[in-house]
Structure formats: C-alpha cells, structure tokens
C-alpha cells in the first residue's frame, strides 16, 4: 500500500522559514519538541515527513499559544520518508517501511515517554493529535481509555482501517479531513453510539489540500493560513472540552 491518493496528490512539502519558539529535548531516547506549559498536555504526531519540515513546530507553538503544554515526537528518529521516493512507488514498499519504522508497537514507548515528559512539566490531562498517517497513531493511542481525554487530527490517512480504529478507540475523536480524504461518516456512525459520541467533532476542509495543517501547508498564503488556524482552533476547543469532561 502506498500513501493515500490524497496524500500523493498533495505533492511535495512546502519549505517553511518558521523559527520555532520552543525547545528540542529528549523524552526517553527519542527527540521531542517542547512548547507551552500548564495542566493540559498534548502529544503531537507529525506526518511522514517527521521533523524534516518546520510546520510541525509552528503547529505545536500554536497549540501552546492556545494554552496547552505540548510535546511533539519525532517518530522517525531524524530519518523520515525521503523526497527521492515521493510519491512512493510499489517497489518502495511504503507500507512495509511505515510498519517497520513507526508502527504502533514501535511508537507506543515514544508516546508514553512524551506523556511522562508532560507530566513532569505539570500536565494532568492529555490529548493526542496527529496529521495524515499520524492520525492513525493518535487513534491507536486512544484505545486504552485511560491516558487520553481526546484524540484525532487533521487530514487523516487511516489506510482503510477507519472502522477498526473507530471500534477500538475509547475516547472522543476529532477528524478534520481535507480535499480527497476519506469520508468520516462510517466512523461517525460507530462513534455516535458511544457514550462520548456527542463530544466527537467532524469537519471537512474540502477547499484545502491534504496536509494543509502540516508539511504541505503553505502558510504564506492567507487562505491556507486562515484555514489552518480554524483547524487548530477546532482541535484546541475539542481537546479543552474533552479534558474538562474526563
């Protein structure tokens, strides 16, 4: 399996000159980016381009400005998917690479270390937000029903496992698909039956390219920056509400 069609169609990441406001630290043996403070902790999972593009740091800082204590993880340990293999071809074995390098079994210790880092910094409630493939990691993180008050993210790529994630997640979900991303109606149908179903948030951004809140987001364009700001605001409000009820 390659990237989702929407991910492939979105093209290459946009070069950003953003200057991060937070700090680069370690959580366990992995690199993380820290920003913000307070009791409301958020673990951020980047898209397949990892820490290789600065938009992830800008997103983390925006969550920090919204009142969150943020820890973004580097799932690929400085070796994200490379541009010479994008868009992925069958012989590149994208799915195999992703499973080997950043499957949930590999990333759970990183997510746990990020939570521990946030706890040490004063956080007492937690959310997990991902982008593109990272939404699948956020959804997996929400399966334990204890650590996270809310999970999800923007322009999700769940690679056809939407219902599997929906059946297993144990907390409210936010899903903000962009142009070409899968319909969230099947997930909503499952989660509407849960006690927390009314706390879930779904909103499409069909006027935006897949990746607009992450590495494909050209925030120098006012319309893209405004849409990304709305998406971050929706996710921030969702998390605050979910945390207040958890």
UniProtKB/TrEMBL annotation:
Annotated Dienelactone hydrolase domain residues: 39-242
Molecular function per GO: hydrolase activity
Gene3D superfamilies in the record: alpha/beta hydrolase
Superkingdom field: Eukaryota
InterPro entries reported in the protein's UniProt record: AB_hydrolase_fold (IPR029058), Dienelactn_hydro (IPR002925)
Record-given protein name: Dienelactone hydrolase domain-containing protein
Annotated organism of origin: Chlamydomonas incerta
């Amino acid at each position: 399996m390659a990237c989702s069609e929407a991910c492939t169609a979105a093209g290459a990441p946009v070069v950003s000159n953003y200057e991060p406001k937070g700090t680069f630290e370690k959580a366990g043996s992995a690199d993380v980016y820290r920003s913000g403070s307070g009791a409301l902790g958020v673990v951020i999972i980047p898209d397949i381009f990892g820490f290789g593009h600065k938009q992830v740091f800008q997103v983390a800082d925006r969550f920090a400005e919204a009142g969150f204590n943020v820890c973004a993880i580097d799932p690929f340990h400085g070796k994200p998917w490379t541009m010479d293999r994008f868009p992925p071809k069958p012989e590149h074995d994208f799915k195999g690479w992703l499973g080997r390098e950043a499957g949930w079994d590999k990333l759970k210790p990183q997510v746990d270390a990020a939570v521990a880092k946030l706890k040490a910094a004063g956080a007492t409630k937690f959310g997990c937000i991902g982008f593109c493939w990272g939404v699948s990691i956020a959804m997996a993180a929400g399966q334990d029903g204890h650590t996270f008050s809310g999970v999800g993210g923007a322009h999700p790529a769940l690679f056809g496992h939407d219902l599997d994630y929906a059946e297993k997640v144990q907390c409210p979900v936010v899903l903000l698909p962009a142009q070409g991303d899968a319909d969230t109606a099947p997930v909503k149908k499952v989660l509407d039956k849960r006690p927390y179903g009314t706390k879930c948030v779904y909103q499409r951004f069909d006027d935006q390219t897949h990746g607009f809140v992450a590495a494909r987001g050209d925030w120098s364009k006012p319309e893209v920056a405004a849409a990304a700001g709305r998406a971050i605001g929706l996710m921030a409000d969702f998390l605050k509400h979910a945390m207040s009820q958890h």
